[in-house]
Amino acid sequence: MTISAADCPDDARDAVLAGMARRARKRGFATPKLNFAHRNHPEDLQLCAPHRMALLPLSTLRRLAKPDGCATKAPAKIELPALSSVATILGWRFLIYDKRVLEPIAAAHAVFTDQGGYRLAELNEGPYVTSSPKALQAPSVRRAISSDADDDKPNEPLLLLAPAIYFAGLWIRHHDSDKDFILPMDSNLLPAFVNVKPTQVLSVLLQASLAVPTDGATAG
Predict the structure, then answer these.
(1) I need a surface site. Which of 11, 107, 157, 216 has the fewest CB within 10 A?
(2) Are 112 and 104 in contact (CB under 8 A)?
(3) Nearest to 169 by CA among 140, 208, 198, 203
């Protein structure tokens, strides 16, 4: 799968490859599909579809939902900020494709280090691995990130994560933020794979953040 990535740095890809090689030498992979493929046909594994990740921590969502420290306003009544001003860029995500099964079997996350480089932070085979190609191949996404987009400027796909409330969506970030949209990756909070404006997503996430028990607030 080829997509227009936002200048994916070689350092991020190299960090993933080096991190995977170290794990393979030391203890193998805990994820079963990747472990099987790497043991039996490592030459058929390929990093594809690099895209950046953006995080909405629970603390940020709660601060926006309760700007005065109390939930006197419903989130729908709160003046919502631009998504780009509250989401934190974490690094890069790669899908790991197995050429023998012609689909991604895992995802690798390269996150920033304190020294300004990248390190392999996570390898996972969660549900968003298989839903990512569907989101990336959605017609609206393909149009937005293609080189022949209407404004001649390919737009950037990012994986938007709010882990404390189990939300992930493909955020298509335009040069004109008014044209941004998000495709939820499942139907947990919003209809899956349906274009939603960032303000609507933020409103739903703010409401959901208030339902997270205080003693579980460390997630995200």
Answers:
(1) 216
(2) no
(3) 198
